[in-house]
Amino acid sequence: MEETEDFDKRMIEKFGASEDDEEELNAVYFRDYLASFEEELPSKSKNVVRVITAEGTVAQGDITYGWMGSAGIKKMFEDAVEDENTKAIVLRVNSGGGLSISADYMRMAIQKLKTKVYHWLLQWAL
User: Which pTM was predicted?
Assistant: First the structure.
């Protein structure tokens, strides 16, 4: 614990403390930075490949850090399909598992795309 506190103090000395809290590092965290963008940048291409990254434990609800929420994944697919420039969707999954009912919910959302689905399994657990 002392090593972490020492590291934090050295970082604050080097980069400065937050205006709100002298014990907190003055930093912009990556997720906060990404959340600051309200809209996606428009693509000028008529042939867009959408990459949906599903990472974390499979769960119900929205996507949060470490959790692959089935409703959030479904919404990402719906948004990709609505764009007439979308020519392909790549689903990249990195998960140790989770709720089977939520995984099934995502599978049904993919099947509703009414298009041929190709997949490639890189690794799997036995």
Answer: 0.60
Per-residue pLDDT tens over the stretch 46-75: 888 888 888 889 999 988 888 889 999 999
Query: Is 42-126 CATH 3.90.226.10?
Result: yes
Name the DSSP letter for residue 54: E
Spell out the domain ranges in the chain: 1-38, 42-126
Specify whether the CB–CB gap between 12 and 25 falls below 8 A.
yes
* Residue 9, CA atoms < 13 Å, CB-side half-sphere: 6
Whether residue 76 contacts residue 36, with contact meaning beta carbons closer than 8 Å, is answered with no
* Strand intervals (E) in 33-107: 48-55, 57-59, 67-69, 86-94
